[in-house]
Write a structure and sequence with these properties.
Layout (H helix, E strand, L loop, with lengths): L17 H20 L7 H6 L1 E2 L6 E2 L8 E5 H7 L4 H5 L35 E5 L2 E2 L24 E7 L4 H4 L6 E7 L5 E10 L8 E10 L7 E12 L4 H4 L5 H6 L1 H5 L16 E5 L6 E5 L6 E4 L2 E4 L14 E16 L2 E17 L4 E4 L6 E3 L9 E3 L15 H6 L5 E6 L8 E19 L2 E19 L4 H8 L3 E2 L6 E2 L13 H10 L3 E23 L2 E18 L3 H4 L8 E20 L4 E11 L6 E13 L2 E12 L3 H4 L1 E11 L2 H14 L5 H10 L6 E8 L7 E15 L2 E13 L2 E2 L11 E4 L4 H14 L20 E7 L1 E2 L2 E16 L5 E17 L20 E11 L2 E10 L20 E2 L2 E2 L11 E11 L4 E8 L26 E9 L1
Parallel strand pairs: 4-7, 32-37
Antiparallel strand pairs: 1-2, 3-6, 4-5, 6-7, 8-9, 8-47, 9-10, 10-15, 11-12, 11-20, 13-14, 15-16, 16-21, 17-20, 18-19, 21-22, 22-25, 23-24, 25-26, 26-27, 27-28, 27-31, 28-29, 29-30, 30-33, 31-32, 33-34, 34-39, 35-38, 36-37, 39-40, 40-41, 41-42, 42-45, 43-44, 45-46, 46-47
Helix pairs in contact: 10-11, 14-15
Keywords: Cell outer membrane, Membrane, Receptor, Signal, TonB box, Transmembrane, Transmembrane beta strand, Transport
InterPro entries: Beta-barrel_TonB, Beta-barrel_TonB_sf, Plug_dom, Plug_dom_sf, TonB-dep_rcpt-like
Membrane topology: Multi-pass membrane protein
Length: 993
């Protein structure tokens, strides 16, 4: 038989409620009396203790190899990886795909949190457990839709191991377990005191700094004292990276695609924050429609542009949007076990996490009279009406209108103004996210004869707050610059001739006005999860081949999600920030049963069935069957079939909605028209034309658009069929190989509208053609009329047929289906080197076969097989080698991601292919026309146990200092599985008292 020591064992009795335990015990009492009273009472206590509970099953067993594939990552494995967080552990699992990372989560709706993502089915398809029980969802759903567990809230210092089930488990755990389960298991007990600290640094970035510290202490011995209590406090701190450090550290192709990034930002040319800048004025020529700019008197940073001169400044250098925010996390964990009597144990567990994420959004901000598209947004109390705001002009009698007579004459004295508002200092604008989450579990477990039972009550919750200081408060803005009036000559809205805000000076009085004009906008969210569960597990009867064991249990849950919304945003007073509003609550109930039966000496069957009842839906039945066959002493065959489901979240099917921007909206018409204009301007010999062309290039191809996404109370649950088939082979004592085919078919997927498809938009509005549009056309006409430009222009110049899209409205819906399958391969070898210690090597790979998606309910697969296309590599793999020698432990890990095309699918490939050498309609670079190259990085760790008290370690992540390639599809300009930090050095020390 295969050895049962392939991973660490544990004695964790299985989960029931006292009430259900008593009922089930009463029903089975005669059987208990016969089998436990008269059979050996002390029989097989050692065997019983050796039974373990493996993730994905409620039944304790003596062999960790089940019909379902389960990967166990020990504490030592985590140390050898050089992983400091659960997120970093998942980076080393081929079955895990990149999910949201807290450092790159700004403006995602769930800022400050990280997600787990198995098989690429998203956080909503991956169930995360702590010691076998659910945690509360993060307070702020991703994209205001996807509720998920923030894996950063799990205490890293007390992790004993992780068990990753790469098979569907809805029959055991219910909703969300379609792609698999990640069960984080903490130490069962701890005695003594331990202090640990870690520091990471990356020489490529002066600002990079990551520190962690933990204190763990416990007392009591279960065998001698009848109790054990231990606790741990974990501290984490990461420094943000400002844009001034990212400025010249993008992949090279980024600068080719953004030629104005270096030139027009002009590092060290414009006035820096804190240095007074008088700004510039502008007006629109009523005849030619051309814009004319003029630097204000006293400007020391004059820049020649296509439309005249401007006084330029630098307000972007402090922004941390690209490099990641400052983050601080405190996680506390308390665990206690108490022996009530020889057959009963009480237990309790408490987890608390406090997260504080801060990012400078680029301080200060500018006053800029609007000549282009207005700011547009939806809000709760204004219904389907799109709110819009245009920054007013300066009137002819304004005390701060110092434009030249020639400029004033163009519009009867009315001029626009560009002015840097520096009064509030360097850290006012930006974003902050706080999240306070907790989980408390208390329960009893024990045994009655050969049957084990457990019952527990858990309460968990999260309170998240997003603070954004970015946009205008209409009333505050008018207080600073109003009251507004209408200029009788031009009909333009103008500010007060003598506004409260005093241009030309930097003062505390001005600062107070700016704080009201650009206030802090907050979004609060609360989630709550109360659960009562119970289970009883033990032998039912004996078959000729052995004992049949079963488990029965129940689960009752109360779930709430509440986001009241900001009052000013709800009334449409915060530009581009309508916020969100949700109010949902529900009770759900489940009962389940499971049995494991040895059909023959070599064949074992596992059956499970779970019934879940959600309000408004019929009872969902999730079955599972698994078979394990010991074909040879060295060969085990296994397979499973199950059905899974995901109920709509309260964000998707509750009351309320999302009133927010959608970024990167692509309007093919405007994109083509603007690029036609920009393309001609970029050919000019005149520098000002080229500057304008570079600035316009792709500017209308990915815009922010007001959107309203409404919940849908008629949603159906997602359903899935999941199967695995594989083997485990151990031909020798030193080699084990496993391979498992996996298959997932998910239908009725719950998705937000795809706003790129007209059929999914219930309403849309457009802006009119703006003065900026007309000014661009005037600049083009001027260039084409000047022979010195050297451009041969067509007889009919390109122009604009319509304005940009202003707003879209849609609703969550059940749409389409996904089919994915592939092969997981895992090979491990163990070598005894004698006096040179022990060497362990391993290769784990996920080989994708199909990834097919249909966005509607029609026949076939419209997008085809997307394996090999962007973000769907055929191969992900990890190689590791660990050498243990005396007091030394060395680990080396290589992570590999296969190459892909730039196109997302065969439809996208019609526009983005090797011939166009583009991805997302942006140039990929001459050496990357065929797609994203394969990518690998290596991590090296060395740990030394100096004595029984002290251990120290060092890790070099990305030991070969590989820098990422340019990724035209990613907003960070490099792929999510790469990083821009280069080589990272880490040192750690642990002292046990």
């Amino acid at each position: 038989m295969l050895p049962a020591n392939r991973s660490a064992k544990r004695c964790l009795p299985a989960p029931l409620s006292l009430a259900v335990a008593s009922v089930l015990f009463a029903i089975a009492a005669p059987a208990f009396a016969q089998s436990s009273a008269e059979k050996e009472k002390e029989k097989d206590k050692t065997t019983e203790l050796s039974r373990i509970e493996v993730t994905g099953s409620n039944i304790r067993r003596t062999d960790v190899e089940t019909a379902s594939p389960v990967q166990v990552i020990s504490k030592q494995d985590i140390v050898n990886m050089g992983a400091r967080t659960l997120l970093q552990v998942l980076d080393n699992l081929p079955a895990a795909r990149p999910g949201q990372v807290d450092s790159k989560s700004l403006f995602s709706g769930s800022d400050g949190a990280s997600q787990a993502n198995l098989r690429g089915l998203g956080a909503q398809g991956t169930l995360v457990l702590l010691n076998g029980r659910r945690l509360s969802y993060y307070g702020a759903p991703a994209g205001f839709q996807t509720q998920f567990v923030n894996i950063d809230s799990i205490p890293a210092a007390v992790i004993e191991r992780m068990e990753v089930l790469t098979d569907g488990a809805s029959a055991v755990y219910g909703t969300d377990a379609v792609a698999g389960v990640i069960n984080v298991i903490t130490k069962r007990s701890y005695q003594g005191l331990e202090v640990s600290g870690t520091w990471d640094t990356a020489p490529r970035f002066d600002s990079f700094d990551e520190k962690q510290a933990s204190v763990t202490g416990g007392f009591g011995d279960m065998d001698e004292d009848g109790y054990n209590v231990y606790g741990s406090v974990n501290l984490y701190e990461r420094a943000g990276i400002p844009n001034r450090e990212w400025y010249l550290k993008h992949p090279k192709q980024y600068y080719a695609n953004n030629p104005d990034y270096i030139k027009n930002l002009r590092l060290d040319t414009g006035s820096a924050p804190g240095v007074f800048n008088p700004g510039y004025y502008y007006a629109i020529d009523p005849v030619t429609k051309a814009r004319v700019d003029e630097a204000a008197p006293g400007c020391e940073n004059v820049l020649q542009v296509a439309t005249g001169t401007r006084c330029i400044w630098q307000d972007w250098m402090t922004s941390q949007i690209n490099g990641g925010a400052d983050s601080k996390r405190v996680t506390a964990y308390l665990n206690g076990h108490f022996r009530v009597n020889d057959a009963t144990e009480a237990f309790a567990e408490l987890t608390y996490t406090d997260i504080d994420l801060r990012a400078n959004g680029g301080t200060p901000r500018a006053y800029g009279t609007t000549t282009g598209n207005p700011q547009s947004w939806f809000s709760r109390n204004t219904g389907n009406t799109v709110n819009q705001f245009l920054t007013p002009w300066l009137g002819p009698n304004n005390e701060y209108n110092h434009a030249s007579p020639e400029l004033k004459a163009l519009m009867g004295g009315v001029v626009g103004l560009g002015y840097l508002l520096q009064d509030v200092g360097g850290n006012h604008f930006g974003q902050r996210n706080t999240d306070k989450s907790y989980r408390a579990v208390t329960g009893l477990r024990g045994n009655v004869g050969d049957w084990n039972w457990e019952t527990a009550f858990a309460t968990a919750g999260s309170h998240s707050v997003t603070y954004q200081t970015t946009n205008v408060n209409l009333k505050g803005f008018e207080k600073a610059f109003g009251p507004y009036t209408v200029d009788p000559g031009t009909g333009r809205v103008i500010i007060s001739d003598h506004p409260a805000y005093k241009f030309g000076e930097i003062s505390q009085a001005n600062a107070a006005l700016i704080r009201e004009a650009f206030p802090t906008f907050d979004i609060e969210s609360w989630t709550r999860l109360h659960t009562l569960d119970g289970k009883i597990e033990g032998p039912l009867f004996n078959l000729p081949a052995g004992e049949v064991r079963a488990a029965f249990g129940f689960n009752a849950t109360r779930e709430t999600f509440y986001t009241p919304g900001n009052p000013d945003a709800a009334n449409g007073l915060i530009t581009q920030q309508g916020g969100s509003w949700f109010d949902g609550k529900r009770n759900t109930y489940a009962i389940f049963g499971e049995a494991v039966a040895p059909l023959t000496d070599k064949l074992e069957m596992d059956l499970a069935l779970r019934l879940d009842k959600y309000p408004g839906f019929s009872t969902n039945a999730a079955p599972k069957i698994g078979l394990k066959y010991q074909a040879l002493p060295q060969l085990m065959l296994r397979g499973t079939y199950s059905e899974g489901f995901r109920a709509p979240s309260l964000a998707e099917a509750g009351s309320g909605g999302v009133y927010a921007q959608i970024g990167g909206y692509r309007d093919e018409t405007r994109c083509a028209e603007t690029n036609a204009i920009a393309g001609l301007l970029r050919q000019s010999n005149r520098g000002v034309d080229k500057d304008l062309g570079n600035a316009l290039w792709n500017s209308d191809c990915a815009r922010n658009v007001a959107r309203m996404t409404q919940p849908n109370q008629d949603l159906k649950p997602e359903k899935a069929k999941i199967a695995t088939l594989g083997f485990v082979l151990e031909p020798t004592d030193w080699l084990s190989v496993s391979a498992d085919y996996w298959f997932v078919y998910r239908r009725d997927e719950i998705v937000a509208p795809d706003y790129s498809k007209e059929e999914e938009i219930s309403a849309q509005t457009r802006f009119p053609i703006t003065e900026t549009d007309l000014a661009n056309l005037a600049a083009l006409a001027s260039m084409c009329s000047d022979p010195a430009s050297g451009v041969s222009c067509p007889s009919t110049l390109p122009g604009y047929s319509t304005g940009n899209v202003a707003s879209v409205i849609g609703q969550y819906r059940n749409r389409g289906r996904t089919l994915i399958d592939g092969l997981d391969v895992d090979a491990r070898a163990r070598f005894d080197l004698g006096e040179w210690g022990r060497l362990t090597t391993g290769v784990a790979a996920t080989i994708a076969n199909r990834n097919m998606y249909n966005s509607d309910n029609g026949d076939g697969w419209y997008y085809g097989n997307t394996v090999g296309y962007y973000n769907n590599p055929r191969v992900r793999a990890t190689f590791n080698a660990n050498w243990n020698y005396g007091n030394w432990d060395t680990g080396f890990y290589i992570n590999y991601v296969g190459k892909t095309k730039w196109a997302y699918d065969r439809i996208d490939q019609e526009d983005n292919n090797a011939e166009t050498c583009t991805g997302s309609y942006v140039n990929a670079g001459p050496k990357q026309c065929h797609g994203a190259p394969s990518w690998w990085t290596g991590n090296l760790s060395v740990n030394w146990q100096a004595n029984e008290h002290l251990s120290v370690g060092a890790t070099v992540k990305n030991v070969f200092n590989r820098l990422p390639f340019y990724d035209p599809n990613d907003w960070m300009n490099f792929s999510g599985y790469a990083n821009n930090f280069g080589r990272i050095y880490s040192v750690t020390a642990t002292y046990k008292f």
